[in-house]
Amino acid sequence: MGIMDGYPRKPNTQHHQSLMDAPAGATSSTTHAPPGPHHHATAKKRHHSGRTKTILLFVVTNSISILLSVSFSHVTGLGSGGDGGGDSALDFAFSVLSSSQSLAVDLHNRIEATDAIIKRLISNSGKMKRDAPPPKLTPEEELTVALGPHTLPFGYTRNLDSDKLYPAVGAACHRHRDELRKYMRYNVSGDCPSDEAFAERLMLKGCEPLPRRRCRARGPAGFPDPTPFPESLWVIPADKSVSWAPYACKNYSCLVDRARRPGRNDLDCKACFDLAGKEQRRWVGQGGDLDYDIDTVLASKPRGTIRIGLDIGGGTGTFAARMAERGVTMVTTTLDLGAPFGAFVASRGLVPLHLGAVAGRLPFFDGTLDIVHSMNVLGNWVPGAVLEAELYDIYRVLRPGGIFWLDHFFCTGKELTGVYVPIIEGVGFRKLRWNTGKKLDKGPNADEWYISALLERPMM
Questions:
Q1: What secondary structure does DSSP assign to 37-53, as a single string?
Q2: What is the rounded CA–CA span in Å between residue 268 and residue 258?
Q3: Delimiting residues of CATH 3.40.50.150 domain(s) in the chain
Q4: What span, in angstroms and rounded, lies between the C-alpha atoms of 111 and 118?
Q5: How many CA atoms within 13 Å lie on the side-chain side of 47?
Q6: Which helix (H) or strand (E) holds 61?
Q7: How far apart are CA 89 and CA 73, in angstroms?
Q8: What ranges make up the beta strands (E) of 342-429?
Q9: Looking at domain 283-313+357-457, what is its CATH homologous superfamily?
């Protein structure tokens, strides 16, 4: 019996038609006899024949299209002429038909494999005792369950326009199946392995979101209560609030002191864990032309109308902290690259979002955010087509009249005028403020530039 047997599916239009075709005065009884063995056999046969019909319909539809194409080529004289042209078109037709059949068979096999594993899990779960371990699946089977598709228990639903559920997994995950198998090698219903750094690398390769796992995420022993808000905004959290296994530093003191030590520093933001140092001065008071002040930016809009926003690549959350002091709620995207950025942002009473940001669609509704900010993340390291898509996505999530604060966008002088100004201006923002200036840490002769801008999504 298939996993979907016995559940309602689409309305049976054939049954309704038979009632409509019945003679006048005929009635339909509402009493149903219990289904017998013949009924179950018929349902099972109908369940399997439905899948077969779907595949056959797919193949036949493609066959008709291809044959029409071949016929059209003969009528119009396409090809090299004579029998050779007809053979070429026919070979092409058979090639396309073969590819279509392969795709249909592959999808059918994936559905069958997922259903088979789930049926085995359901069957075993009924036999297990409460404290018995769950059924053991291979990493490949765990991956199959994670990637789906899964048959819906109650059949077709209009919201999904399908009787299958496809888990949200990044398309690039399918390019790294060996690494995914490693990621899915864990103890079901046990503690998840300490593989945060490995998962982070998969996300950076475009495997985002990662497949879900049926294990319990580990937490640090002796986790303390957080510091009350708003004091938490400027307090270094307790070391016991973090699992330090994936990182070179094993406490926050190491991260704070690391920026003060000479030599190579692997952190993206060298001093961002030092809340008593440079972080205290960021976005407060006017610096140079490129360094905008938060209060000045907020004053560009009517008081209280900038309420919620997004900080792309916000490091340890200091921008969000400054906004929180002014009554603005920010979501901060960050990655744990070499340090526990996400845990640090959360410890400050702010909202971290584990997101690579520039490679995928922003997870926000259209026209909902008052402000989007990004500093040092967007720059010439991002391919032009990806950057353009990211800017259009920022435009999408901003409400009309919302502000995009582009903070220290890095590029060369040639790229500034030849590439990035046309891309930024092409999106359709209205410039409220625009400044360019040289990046001077390598000397005045280096052809390195910054753009800082305040861009508004125009009111309709």
A1: HHHHHHHHHHHHHHHHH
A2: 12
A3: 283-313+357-457
A4: 11
A5: 19
A6: helix 37-76
A7: 8
A8: 351-354, 369-375, 398-412
A9: Vaccinia Virus protein VP39 (3.40.50.150)
Please count the CA atoms within 13 angstroms of the CA of 19 that sit on its side-chain side.
8
Q: Where are the extended beta strands (E) located within 175-291? A: none
pLDDT tens for residues 288-334? 899 999 999 999 999 999 999 999 999 999 999 999 999 999 999 99
Inter-CA distances, 299 with 286, 302, 306, 327, 336, Å: 14, 7, 10, 14, 33
Two tokens at 360?
A: 């995928």
Type of residue found at 107: L
Q: Helical H runs in 150-209?
A: 177-183, 196-204
Q: For 114, what's the count of Cα atoms within 13 Å in the CB-facing half-sphere? A: 20
Whether the pLDDT of residue 82 is over 70: the answer is no
The helix or strand, by DSSP H or E, that contains position 435, with its residue range, turns out to be strand 430-438
Q: Which residue has tokens 């402000």?
A: 371
Token pair listed for 252? 């926050």
What's the rounded Cα separation, in Å, for the pair 445 and 152?
A: 63
